[in-house]
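**Polypeptide and fold**
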Amino acid sequence: QVTVLNAPRGGYAAVARAGSGVNLREVRVTCPGGQGCGDWLLLEGIDASPVDLTISTATETRHFTLRPQYEKHEPNGARCGPTCFYAEQTVTWE
């Protein structure tokens, strides 16, 4: 999960990439116009570091490099799936 401080209030798109080659992971999030998407993005499926994040509006683009520290969660216990990894990061739209 990425918290976007000062998030653009109109529509925006975010692209996150991590890993390389066969391990490349990419997540795209599109936020429609109007009130915007709020102040956070869920980048489901990203499990590597660093993460290159690009957030774009109709007129501006910002690039961020994230270095998440993932925490392992096993909601059903150590011997039962799923195994989940979770991290939180904050970026500022300036």
Remarks:
- The mean pLDDT is 88.
